[in-house]
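Ticket #4471: structure export looks truncated?
Reporter: QA, pipeline team
Priority: medium

Steps to reproduce: submit the single chain below to the structure queue and open the exported record.
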Amino acid sequence: MKKVYYTLLFAFIILFSVSAQQKQTFAISGGDFLLNGKPIQIHSGEMHYSRIPQQYWRHRLKMMKAMGLNAVATYVFWNYHETAPGVWDFKTGNKNLAEYIKTAQEEGLFVILRPGPYVCAEWEFGGYPFFLQNVPNMVIRGNNAAYLAATKAYFTQLYNQVKDLQITKGGPIIMVQGENEFGSYVAQRKDVPLEEHKKYSAAVFQQLKDLGFEVPFFTSDGSWLFEGGALPGALPTANGESDIAKLKEVVNKFNNGQGPYMVAEFYPGWLDHWAEPFPTQKPEQTARQTKKYLDNKVSFNYYMVHGGTNFGFTSGANYDKEHDIQPDMTSYDYDAPISEAGWATPKYNMLRELLKTNETPAIPEKMPIIEIPKIALTKTVDLADLKAKISPVYEDTPQTFEQLNQGDGYVWYSKKFTQPISGKLELKGLRDYAIVYVNGKKIAELNRYYKKYDCEIDVPFNATLDIVVENMGRINYGSQINENNKGIISPVIINGQTITGDWEMYKLPMSQEPDLTAYKNSGKINRPTLYQGTFTLSKTGDTFLDMRDWGKGIVFVNGINIGRYWSVGPQQTLYLPGCWLKKGKNNIVIFEQKNETLQKELKSITTPILEDLKPEKGQ
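Actual output as written to the record:
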């Protein structure tokens, strides 16, 4: 009888709790954010579920709560969930978005959802699936039927995951963003009439509304870009606006003369590119601006409060006048208040003093840290040995990654010559990085970052030209987002002659850890090489692989691609979460593209190296 009583009591408590949650309301009215009818200021932090191991989500959310925040904002990454056309994954590992949102609620945080479809975010292709580029007549971020059909399919899948997690249903989602930074795109694409831009943004916004979202909508743009980005029926918020008077003036202009006022992207740090200095912001600067917002009752969202890591091939890229591509680093530390590994920084502590209340919980303990002094690398295999077991694609001209239906990784292009040819090799269509070989001997490195697209070459009689090309991440911001094919996208030219006929393409997506069991040692200097080793642990913990003695490549640990490394820096270590390690035997595989030295071992250290720039290693 007692068991039945406690069962009924527990059920009553659960029902009461759900009922209480359902009584929560959130609205925008009279110039305020209203929670249960009372004005509230939103103190949010951006943190992306895809950049943190699922096992660490709760710890990082606790860190946010302990900093004094009341909400978490996250983008949703379309290409993270549609893994192939019509194939969706919202359940496995880090992809379980609904679980992330529920965990935030359990930790006392509201959720601001930013579904895109475009997200920027220093993420591969701004969140778009690469294969959209293969759809006939599709124009990304354009008012065309093919694109809008794709966005509708994506939004429908997403809505089914989150519809019951809105505050109106007892969940934590209080706001949803309509498009993302569209004002920037309007400014960059002046070749498209504003009226046409507006038709697109209205159409994609209508798709969100038609699905049944019940919470308020907002837009997010630079304050000088509201003309192109603001949407009727959505609260305009500003990105990076520090001038309170300007913020209020522009929001009033596009929001019927009233607030609430919010900076949806308040930058406590900045994004990081390979081969460029690591940007930092002093804690005092971030704290000063935070206090200005607090004093003026301006809501805000730190972008990022915790950046995490661009694991695998998820990092995107930018470009400027000096560089045709600026690939983003694997670390997405962002100089954020919570470091890449989830540590409280001096910036965190300073902001916490401003934001905490009597109800703010204590700071969670740091995850355990370990050092691995030596990982012996017992196998070295030339990439050509793996290539030999791949069936090539034959075409008269080099094919792009997209034509090969490959999103990430590498493609090995090979061409046999029956007659000699010499002169300048031109790869104007290189996307993005290549090493060129003749009869297995390295001739040159070509690199889109440095605008190096040609080299002198001598191909003798009966020789083979090999070009191993890496996709360093698709551009995620700017007008060139519609020009994102990878590989070799235009003719290969030698001595003024276009080289056609019998090109061989070997697909090397590296979507899974290469299995080297059946291969013998064959690695050589200046050849693309795979290394394999094992290491045994008596305890697990977070650590940082020290890649300072290596060239360029990727690392798998226990089957997980933990990201790219490149000797140019400034990032010289790779964050390895302890939750992906295990007591006992662990496996590591490294793909080293340059292989200027035969490596024997690797080690890990207890602190990251993110500011060690070595530009001489890139030329």
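Status: closed, not a bug. The export was complete when the record was re-opened. Leaving a note from the reviewer for reference: Confidence is low (pLDDT under 50) at residues 1-21.
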